[in-house]
Amino acid sequence: MEISISKMKIVIEELQVVEMAYKKQVSAFERIFHEYQSLDQEGNDRNTLKKIFEDLYDEYLSIKRLKEALTEIVRFYDNAERNIIKWSSNTFGNSPVLKKIDIKLAQKILDKHNIKII
User: Fold this and answer.
1) Scanning 31, 53, 92, 113, which has the fewest C-beta atoms within 10 Å of its C-beta?
2) For the segment 41-60, what is each residue's pLDDT rounded down to a tens digit?
3) 95-118: string of b/e by CB count within 10 Å (b at 16+)?
């Protein structure tokens, strides 16, 4: 997937909304699950509710992790941009200052989620 940093910020905002909605659903479903009295002798209905709750919670966690990873990437690139501006404003004369920026951590996160910054 190719995405720009500005579009990534929009995705993060949308993920924040979705995460909060899932969090409310997980919380409500958890209360229902804990208060539910099984009607089936063997508890099959309760086991089904537990499976639904676990799936809902797993989806919530995956949304939360993705949002956190994207937020970390955006923060890294924003900091790098500020540092480049700061370093270039501290140069004397016309000679540019070249400094190496370590992007290994950000690249690892991008690779993990199959994201390419354009």
Assistant:
1) 92
2) 777 888 888 899 999 999 99
3) eeeeeeeeeeebeebbeeeeeeee
